[in-house]
Amino acid sequence: MRAARQRNTTAEVLLRAELDRLGLSYLVDQCPLPSLRRRADVLWAAERVAVFVDGCFWHGCPIHGTWPKQNADFWKEKIEANQRRDADTDRRLTEARWTVIRVWEHEDPAAAAERIASVVWSHSA
Ligand SMILES: [Zn+2]
User: In the prediction, which pLDDT does 5 show?
Assistant: First the structure.
């Protein structure tokens, strides 16, 4: 177990399939801001919309994020550091007039894709 952000997780692949179904074209795994070395899982540069798919464990999902009992302090620190980093990423992108959408790993991909599409379409209108 290592990276907080793994690429091409099942949740990401399913989400992209739903975005494809809605006829959206998008960029994958790019940095929205060159100065901010954090990659969005899916993004639209012209519309300034960045999507992050957050794993329930690594990002401390309120519904089924688990807090391991073994090495509890280690994991707590790790997960909380990820949450702080997520909040910092959101803040910096928002300041740069990006719209950030976070999708939990557990969310229904079709519903998440529709939520994202409505934002992208409203920005491209
Ligand atoms: Zn979850």
Answer: 59
